[in-house]
Amino acid sequence: MRELSLNLLDVAQNSLTAGASLVEIGVLVNTDKDLLNIYVKDNGKGMTQQQADAAQNPFFTTRTTRKVGLGIPLFKMAAEMTGGKLALTSQPNVGTLISANFGWTHIDRMPLGDLCGTLTVLIRMNPHVDFVYIERFNDKEMTLDTRELREVLEGVSLSNPDVIAWIEEFYKENSPLI
Amino acid sequence: MKSLEELKAIRDKAKSAINVREESDAGTRIVVGMATCGIAAGARPVLNAFAEEVNRRGLKDVMVTQTGCIGICQYEPVVEVYVPGQEKVTYVKMTREKVAEVITEHIVNGRPVTAYTIGAYQN
Ligand SMILES: Nc1ncnc2c1ncn2[C@@H]1O[C@H](COP(=O)(O)OP(=O)(O)OP(=O)(O)O)[C@@H](O)[C@H]1O
Ligand SMILES: [Mg+2]
After folding, report:
1. Which of A4, A16, A103, B87 is placed for a possible disulfide with A82 were both Cys, Cβ 3.0 to 4.6 Å?
2. Which of B32, B36, B69 to mutate to test the pocket of ligand 1 (most atoms within 8 A of CB)?
3. Reading across the β-sheet that carries B28-33, which strands appear in turn?
4. Among A65, A120, A170, whose Cβ lies nearest the Cβ of B48?
5. Full residue range of the structural domain in which residue A11 is found
6. Is-contact B63 B32, C-beta < 8 A?
7. How far apart (Å, rounded) are the C-alpha atoms in residues A155 and B15?
8. Does A27 score more than 80 pLDDT?
9. What is the tally of structural domains in chain A?
10. Cβ atoms A40, A150 nearer than 8 A
11. pLDDT digit string (tens) for B21-64?
12. How many CB atoms neighbour CB A35 within 10 A?
């Protein structure tokens, strides 16, 4: 993948496939620690320990169209290339947390890419799912919580094009990473 | 600051629109493959472009959705178009740039853009 935002989108897709109704995403930078942390936490169907271990190898998938699952191994590789690592914690019927650390200034760290594009495609395609999206750059932080938007929207869909445009604007004005 | 007031205005406008409706299954469906293979090949901008173009042109009974891996990873980004009463058309190696043409020619004028379909690549 050319951008970490694409890995992020891909990992978040797993949460949706797992039937999550709430997905929390964080993109957090701490320059003192030279650390970039990207995590996805969901309340989907989860995995057994055995499945969670297997998911980190590129031969495990519950899909049927192709024999290898690539999403998690690619994300893990992108992290390890920068001296970081990936941690996967999951519990059946509770949910999953996938968290990857990257060396922020490491030469092999892929660019973040279009994080806003990832966020909007997730919301657009899954208007019934709630997303909490957090970005942090040292002490600057932005949070977008679709549950709060939903309260204002009174039944109007989050996938409404004007709502998506509002989210894009909100992102541009508040993201500490752009 | 993007304010919640503006979001309320969007809500009120949406509520008063006559054509408010949720997903329909009667209309045309544009389905974008969004598994790892699709995402890596560039499906995200393609999907966003389809959604924006459908909105920009005010196409009411066209739905843009996503699916997983269709099993032809080497042709990603793959987009399947289902027009009621017609055979499915599979576009391959899609890009943002091709989106407007597919919408105009295929969705609006009813003529699939053969040059971008899987058939054109397999021959
Ligand atoms: N958040 C999650 N909740 C539950 N199961 C998950 C989650 N993430 C991954 N899995 C399991 O791990 C498997 C491997 O995931 P991975 O993303 O690597 O491959 P995949 O989704 O099967 O295929 P693709 O290559 O298209 O991503 C999945 O098929 C699924 O069974
Ligand atoms: Mg996956």
Report:
1. A103
2. B36
3. B62-67, B28-33, B79-82, B89-91
4. A120
5. 4-174
6. no
7. 9
8. yes
9. 1
10. no
11. 555 556 999 999 999 999 999 999 999 999 999 999 999 899 99
12. 15
pLDDT tens, position by position, A148-168:
999 999 999 999 999 999 999
Per-residue H/E/C for A92-143: CCCEEEEEEEEECCCCCCCCCCCHHHHHHHHHHHCCCCEEEEEEEECCEEEE
**Which tokens is A105 given?**
């200034």
The alpha carbon dihedral of A44, A46, A52, A55 has a sign of negative
Which site among A4, A13, A15 would you substitute to test the B interface, given the most B Cβ atoms closer than 10 Å to its Cβ? A13
pLDDT at B18 over 70: no
pLDDT tens-digit readout, B64-88: 999 998 889 999 999 999 999 999 9
The confidence band for A58, taking pLDDT boundaries of 50, 70 and 90, is confident
Domains of chain B: 24-122 (3.40.30.10)
Q: Are A13 and A71 in contact (CB under 8 A)?
A: yes
Phi, psi of A146 (to 5 degrees): -65, -20
ipTM attached to this prediction: 0.92
Tokens of A50: 């055995």
Residue A115 contacts by C-beta under 8 Å, 6 or more apart in sequence? A5, A8, A27, A135, A171, A175, A177
Which position has the token pair 């393609």? B46
Q: Which CATH number does the domain housing residue A87 bear?
A: 3.30.565.10
Q: State residue A140's pLDDT score.
A: 98
